[in-house]
Structures
1.
Amino acid sequence: MQPLLTPGQQELVDQAGKLADVFAERAAVHDRENTFPHENYEDLREAGFLRLSVPEELGGFGAGLPEILPVLERLAMGDGATALAFTMHLSPLGQWASVWRRTKAPRLAEMLVKAREGDLVWASITSETGLRNDITDSKTSAVKVDGGFELTGRKSFATNSAVATHCSTTARYEDADGGPRLLLCQIALDQPGVTIHPTWNTMGMRGTQSNDVELDKVFVEDAAVVHSLPVKHLDARVLETVWAWAMPAFSAVYTGIAAGALDWTVKSLRQRGKTGDPVLQDVIGECQILIEASRALIYRHAEEVTSRRLFTGDVQDGVARCSMVKYVAANNAVQVMQRLVDVLGGMSYTKALPFERMWRDVQASTFMPMGNLATRKLVGANVLGVRTLPEISPDETGHDSRAKA
Ligand SMILES: Cc1cc2nc3c(=O)[nH]c(=O)nc-3n(C[C@H](O)[C@H](O)[C@H](O)COP(=O)(O)OP(=O)(O)OC[C@H]3O[C@@H](n4cnc5c(N)ncnc54)[C@H](O)[C@@H]3O)c2cc1C
C-alpha cells in the first residue's frame, strides 16, 4: 500500500526510488565493511538531490517538508544509512529555506546558493557523550577572542561528516553577560583544529559513519554564531529550526526502513506462494497499519509546520508534539520488524539476506533524540501542565534569545 501523493511529490519519490534501488544493492557491502557510501552521495549529487530543499528562486527545487519526507522514506527503503546521512544535509537546508523565505537574510541566501553549486554539504554535530542531546547545553567550551570565539570539546555521532564541508555545532559560553549561554555555531570541517576520529563501529546504521569530531580551539567568527540562548531553556527558534524538522525527518527514515522490510517480506511471500495463509495476512495487515499510522502523524506534523500552527502555542507543547511524532514512528518501525520476524523466521537472521541489516538499523530509532524515556516524560509533564524548563517564547527569541524580565 503506497502513500497517496500529489503529482509533485510522486515525481520526486519516483526519482528517489530509482536511486534507492541502486543503494539497496550497495548497502550490504558498506554495512559489512563499515564504510561510508560515497558513490551513493555522488548519485544524489548528480540527480540534483543535494539542492532539493534550496528555494526555487535560488536555483533549487524548493522542496519543503511535505516533499522531503516521502523522498527520505523512499530512500530509506533502499538504504537507511544513506537516507539518514542525507537527512543531515537536506533538513538544515530546508530549515534555512523556510526562514529565508520570510526574512530574505543575505547570509542564508549565500549558503543556500553555495549548496546549489555543490560547494556546501551540511552536517549537524551537537551530540556529546554523557549529555542529553536536547540542544539546551553543551560540554564544549566557547572562549571569547578577538572577532569571535574559540571552541574546544569532543562531539559524537557526527553523521555525514565523511562528506560534509560544514556543520552546525553547539558550545557553552560560560562568561556571557547575564549567565552561561549556549551558542549555535557554523564551522567548516576542514579548518584548523577539527579532527575526525574513526570511532564508529556499531550494531546498525554503519554506513552513516557517525564518527567523533574533536574541536581544539576552533575559531568561529561572530557572524557564524547564528543563535545564542541561555543554557537550560526551551527556545522558540530551536523548536522552529531543529525540532520541527529533525523529528519528522528521522521519523520518515525509520518508517522507510520498516516499509522497505515489509515490501521485501511481501515479495518473498509471493515468491514462495504463501499469500493465501490467513495468519500471514494478519501479520502483514498489522504491519501496514502501523506504517500508515506513523505516516498519518508525520504528515499531520508537516502540515502543522507548513501552516506555522506549531509555532503559535507554547514552546514546550511544540517540542512535545515534535518528539511524539518521532516516538510513534520509531516504535512502530521496531514493532513492524519484530512482527515480520515472526513471518520470516530464519530468513530474518541470515546475513545473506537484507532483512537482518534493516532489523539492526531500525534499533537506532528509539534512542535517537528525542529518545523514548525523554519523550514520554516530556509529553506526560506537558499534559499534566508541568513546566520542565523555562521558555524563550516566539516574541523573545532571535539571534540573541533572552527571556523578558
Ligand atoms: C545512527 C545515529 C546517528 C546519529 N547522528 C547524529 C548526528 O548527526 N548529530 C548528532 O548530534 N547526533 C547524532 N546522533 C546522536 C543522537 O543525537 C543522540 O545523542 C544519541 O543517540 C543519544 O546517545 P546516548 O544514548 O549516549 O545519550 P543520552 O541522551 O545520554 O541517553 C541515554 C539514555 O538515557 C535515557 N534517559 C534516562 N533517564 C532519562 C531522563 N530522566 N530523561 C530523559 N532521558 C533519560 C535516554 O532516553 C536514553 O535512552 C545519532 C545517533 C544515532 C543512533
2.
Amino acid sequence: MARLQHFGWFFSRGFGPQAWGREDYRWGYDWKRPDLYVQAVQQLEQAGLDLVILEDALSLGSEQAIDLRVRGAYGGPKHDPLLLVPYLLNATRHLGFVPTINPGATPPYLAARQAATLHHLSGGRYGLNVVTDTASSRHFGVPQLGHDQAYDRADEWARVVRQLWHSWGEGAYINDPETGRFADSTRIDAFQHRGEYYEVAGPLNAVPFDDGDPVIVSPGGSPRGIGFAGAQSTVQLALAPLTVDSVTGYRQKVVEAALAAGRAASDIKTLFVFKPEIVASDDEVDRIVAASENPSDEQLAAILLGQSSDLETDLTGLDWESPLDPEALFGDHVSRGSIKGLLAGAESFADHTLRELLVRHARKGRAADRAGWVGTAEQIADYIEEFGEVANNDGFIFSGDLHPVTVHRMLDQLVPVLRRRGLLRREYGDGNLRGNLLDF
Ligand SMILES: Cc1cc2nc3c(=O)[nH]c(=O)nc-3n(C[C@H](O)[C@H](O)[C@H](O)COP(=O)(O)O)c2cc1C
C-alpha cells in the first residue's frame, strides 16, 4: 500500500515579478494585481495540495547588489506577501497560506495579532514561515545579528508569539449573550516578558483559537535551524539532495529534534522542496536532456546572473575559465548553504572552472535513471512513491512561480497519477491547515 504524502507549493520568488520576461508572462498578466495568484491557488486547491508557502525578501539587498537583483527582476522588487494572503484566502476554502516572516523585522506582538486575525478570518488556514535572514537589519534600525544569535532571537520570538496567542486562558472567551458575559478578564494573562531580545507585555488583543494555533513552518537546515524546527514547527521546509539517504537522514534529524524538545515525532512533517520538469513522453525527456548537455554561453550567463543575485555578489565579471575563490569573494552575509549550492553537487571550487560549475547547473538528468528531474508524470510519481516507502517521506513542496502556466505544467499530468496511486489525498479533512497536515 502506497504511503499517502502531503504536498504544497513554495512560491519561491515571492510576491514580485517572477517569471518576468518569459513569453507566457507577457500575455497581459500584472504581477502587482492579485488575479494571477488567485487563479493559480485555485488550481492548487483543486489539485489537493495542503499549503502554499510564500517566500519573501525584505530588502533589495546590499547597496552593491541592487543592480544584480533588479536587472532581470531576479531578486526584487517584492511586495509584502502577508498582504496578498487575504486575497488568496478569500478565493479558496481549504488551502493553507504561509507567508514568510522575519523576527528581526516584525515584533512578536504585531505578528501574533496579525496571525490571529487572519487565522480567524480564514477558519484556521494561516501559518508563518519563520526565517532568520539578518541582511535586511539596516532597514529596521536593529543590529545585524550573527547566524546563531538570529536563531536565539527567533526562538524567543516564537515563544512570545505563542504566549500571546494563549494569553486568553481556558474559559476567558465566554461569548454568551444569555448571561451577558462576553469575556472573563480574570482568565486573561497580562504577562510581562523580559527576554534577551524582546520586552513584551500581554495579553493579546484578540480572542483565542478553537482549533489550534497557526502552524509554524521553518526552512533553516543548519543544526540550529533543525533545532528550531524541532521545538517550534509543524512543517520543516527542507532543501536537500533528493536521494533516499539524504531524505531519510534529514527527516530523522528533524524527528530527533522534536523528540528532544518533548514533542512527538508525528507533530512535525518534513516536506522537501521539489522542482520536477514533467513532460509528455520519453522522447521529450531525451530531447530536453540532450539539449541541456551543451548549453550556450547565453544560457550560462543567465545562470550566472541568477546566482549573483542570490549570492548578492557580482560574479558576472569573473573569468569563466578559472576556478573561483570563495574565501575572497563572499562576505559573511552570504549563507554557507547558498555558496554550497553554487557547486551544483561538485566537491570543491578548486577542482572546477567557473564555466564547469555553470554547465553543471545547466545540465538536466532523467528521472527514470535517477540522474535528475526530467520525466513523465509516471516516472516522477515513481520517485515520489519510492521516497514514501523507502525513506518514510512525509511529502514534497513543489517550487516555482505562482503562475497558472507553471502550475499547469507541473500538476496537470502529475496529479491524476499521484491520486490513482494513493499518494495524494482524495479529499480534504474537515479540519483546518493544521488538521490537514496532521490527519495522516
Ligand atoms: C528552502 C528555504 C527557503 C527559505 N526561504 C526564505 C525566505 O523566504 N526569506 C528569507 O529571508 N530567508 C529564507 N530562507 C533562509 C533561512 O531562513 C535561513 O536564514 C538560512 O537558511 C540560514 O539558516 P540555516 O543555516 O539554518 O539554513 C530560506 C532557506 C531555505 C533553505
